[in-house]
Amino acid sequence: MSTYQGLEILLSREQIAARIQEMGAQISKDLVGEKLVMIGVLKGAAPFLSDLARAVTVDATFDFVAVKSYAKGSKTSSGAVKLIKDLDEPIEGQNVLIVEDILDTGLTLTYLRKVFLQHHPKTLRIAALLDKPSRRIEKIEADYVGFSIPNLFVIGFGMDFAERYRNLPDICLMPPDVP
Ligand code: IMP
């Protein structure tokens, strides 16, 4: 399937929406009767968090962090992860769900998990819309995964290439010939 100046769609908005509903139902089941703090990792996770939050039926609040892990315009990780926006509210004693667009090398989520565990949450879970297990450097898995994909660079539904394409409603393949 192709759209937007010939970009190839990997996962359509309908597939994404249906899977997020399923993830929301599973999270609601696992946390029935509990409160939840959903922590989105800016900027890529914003559309996913927005949809996932409306798919859960538990009493949920949001917070956001921002990290820097990719050199601008690069398709490969620099290896270093830095927190550039911290949590607004304390998470001690809370059920925390980290909401991330892609679990790739695992460096970002390994770092965030370590930082958040220092705040002594009651529980700490991870929801990743996409998982690229073949790219993993750190040994980490998400508790909830939308789609497991091969080693492809994707854009859309929050995910960027040099800050572009985040607003595509579908998840598309990044053409190899873009500078
Ligand atoms: P990790 O630390 O290598 O797991 O990388 C996680 C972050 O890398 C994601 O939150 C994305 O921002 C970025 N990333 C990894 N793969 C892709 C991709 O295919 N497209 C866009 N961003 C990606």
Q: Class in CATH?
A: Alpha Beta
- Quote the CATH topology: Rossmann fold
Spans of at least 5 consecutive residues with low confidence: none
Which architecture would the CATH scheme give at its second level? 3-Layer(aba) Sandwich
Described by strand count, sense and barrel closure, the largest sheet is:
6 strands, mixed
Please indicate the percent range of residues in DSSP E strands (runs of 2 or more).
35-45%
Question: What Rg, in angstroms, do the CA atoms define?
Answer: 16 Å
Structure, briefly:
The chain is an alpha/beta fold and 179 residues long. Helices cover 22% and strands 36% of the residues. The protein has helices at 13-30, 46-55, 107-117, and strands spanning 2-3, 7-11, 35-42, 59-70, 77-85, 95-103, 123-131, 144-148, 154-155, 171-173.
Describe this structure in words.
The chain is of the alpha/beta class and 179 residues long. It has a single domain, classed as Rossmann fold. Helices cover 22% and strands 36% of the residues. It has three helices and ten strands. It has helices at residues 13-30, 46-55, 107-117; strands at residues 2-3, 7-11, 35-42, 59-70, 77-85, 95-103, 123-131, 144-148, 154-155, 171-173. The protein has a six-stranded mixed beta sheet with strand order 5-4-3-6-7-8, with helices on both faces. Strands 1-2-10-9 form a four-stranded antiparallel beta sheet. β6 (95-103), α3 and β7 form a beta-alpha-beta unit. The longest helix has 18 residues, at 13-30. The radius of gyration is 16 Å and the shape is globular. The protein starts with a strand and ends in a 6-residue tail after the last strand. The mean pLDDT is 93. The structure holds inosinic acid. Residues 44, 69-70, 77, 100-108, 153-154, 159-160 line the site of inosinic acid.
